[in-house]
Structure formats: structure tokens, C-alpha cells
Amino acid sequence: MNRPNKSPLTLETLDERTLPAVTLLNVSAQGAVVSGSGFIARQIDAAPANQFDTFLRIRGDFGDTEQGYNTTSRRQPFDTVTSSSVHPALTLSQVPVVTVNGVNYREFILDASQRGFQRLSVDEVQIFLGSTSNLSNYRGNGTLSGLHPVFDLDAQRDTALVLNAGRNAGAGFGDISLLIADSRFAGASPDTFVYLYSKLGGKVGGASGGAESWAVRLPEVPPSPPPAPPPPPPVGSGTSSISGQVWVDSNQDGVVDSIETLLPHVTIHLTGTDDLGNQVDLTTTTNASGLYSFNNLRAGIYTLTEDQPSAAPSGQFVSDGLDWLGTLGGDLDNDIITNINVGANQQGTGYNFTEIFPE
Hints:
Layout: E1 23-26, E2 33-36, E3 39-43, E4 52-58, E5 66-69, E6 97-100, E7 103-111, E8 119-130, E9 151-152, E10 159-164, E11 176-181, E12 193-200, E13 212-217, E14 240-248, E15 261-262, E16 267-274, E17 279-285, E18 291-297, E19 300-306, E20 319-324, E21 331-333, E22 336-342, E23 347-348, E24 352-356
Parallel strand pairs: 1-10, 14-23, 14-24
Antiparallel strand pairs: 2-3, 3-11, 4-13, 5-12, 6-7, 7-11, 7-13, 8-9, 8-10, 8-12, 14-15, 14-18, 16-17, 16-19, 19-22, 20-24, 21-22
């Protein structure tokens, strides 16, 4: 049987191709720290959930990979889970800065929830920056709405992080801290929106039905200082008073006669301690009739002191005369009356200072 004419069979020579190996960076051990191009990943102890603000939550079926990114778009991408406790509109100002060996990083926290096999791989992480919070349309070529990532975990080679979701199981929030060099965000303003795309479970573990969450730490709120003690009532908030008069008492009988000279503008000081322990230090001057008064005093122990005047209004020199105790008593000294014991709602009158004309 003759075969029909056909082109002769040939064998194509294939070039040897080696697929790049996956670099698995293990952060499953207690306190483990790994690093790569522009990032540091470290295992962390869990902390109370109220210390974090979750911006992305993704969930896959048992054994599957899961992926997603935060966006306020009504159409949620991939395996993204919506919830009132998830706040996808993340701005750069919300991402804390952490300094390691003098280099600034932006910190993102991943909390994993595995129901079966506890180890889980973080296969891909990409960070995008945008001017709005509702970007969508992630493409397989690694772009989001045409934007290229400012950070890519696989920028140099296929890299995956491996964590142990069981290490902090039931203990709070957080399994690993992913620190991305702040230089990757150069030029972005504080209100620039930050998108984090991640894919998990493809290299190790597979998603097991529990939701994985990405969050940022909330700023620490300093403890409120203890309330300040109420200020003491201002001096002069009571109901008592001390008053008197200053004049030239020619016959030194302590009585103002019609022909005697009244002394205005004489300075009188009131010092002491009120019933609340407040120090009192007040000053007044006599009026045209030589009268003075300290009003609105609290109960307390007080001292009156006269500044010795040098002359009467006529210009005639005066010398020191006798002083007189008022109605609440006290102790007399030259131009000083001490130990005036004033009670609440008491009016001490007749605390007089007199002068004489020298002969």
C-alpha cells in the first residue's frame, strides 16, 4: 500500500526551561522575622481586636486559594467579604509608621483563621495608591484600574510568607506584621487611598473556611489625666467684712470730731488665712472721708496693716497716733492689728488708725 505524499516528519528541539522556585519565608515560629526587597514580615502576639481597624476581609472554601482587595466599589472583587466592621476606604494617614534600624516602614496586620491545617501561605501582596476609594478592575497582569503597584511581594521572584494561624488562636487579633518601606509611598499625600491586594493558601495550607483579615493599628489613646481638683473659691467670695477709718485725732480719744482732719488715700493691707486654708493678701485705700472696707471675706484669721501717711491733704506733716480695735477684737501693735477672728457673715467695724499733727 502506497502512502500519500506528505511532508517528512521532523522533531522540534525544545530549549530546557526551568520554572523559578518559590521562596517560602517562614514566619510561623514564635517571634520569627524575615525580610525581602522593601519589606519585613514578623510573627506577632495577638492583641485585643479593638486596637485595630479592619479594612479587608477575604474567605475561601476548604482547600482553595482566596484573594481580594479593599475597595468601596459596590461590586466586591474575588473573595472579599463585606461587613459593617470592615472599613475599606483606607488612607495613607491611617497606616502607622514603624521605624526599624532607622528606616521607616508602613505597618499592615494580617489575622488568619484556619479551621483545619493551621499553616497558611501568603502567596501575593501588592499595594496600589489611588485618588478615590472605589477602584476596581484588577487584572491578571497585576494592575488595578490601570495602576501599577508601588509594592509587590513577588517583585524579584515568586515569594510567599508562611504563617501559623494556630499560634494565636482565640487569643485576640493578629498573626503577622507586614512592614513595607515608607519610601514606596514617596510623593503620596496623607489622604491618598491605599489598596492592598493579597492571595493566600495557594502554596501552603489552602483556605479552610475561616476569614482572613487585614487591618491597621489604631492610634494609641493616652490615658485621661485624673480630673483636676476643683479650684478653691476666689478670695472674697464670703459674706463677712472688716472696715475702719483713718483721721488726725487731735485729742486721741478715738472719736471723729467735726473739726478733725480726715485722711484720704492712706493704704491699708489685709492679710491672713481663710477657713479653707487659702492665703489672703488684699490692699485698699481710704476714701475722701478716710473710710476703708474689705468686703466679701470668708471666715478666717486676719491682720490689718496701715502704711503710715506722711501728710494731711493740706500738706501739713502728721505723726503716728493711737490705733483702735474694732468689734471683733484682735491684738494691737504699732500700725498693725493682728488676730482678728472673723466668722461667717460677720462685719467687723471700728478698726481705726489715727494720726496727730506734730507740735
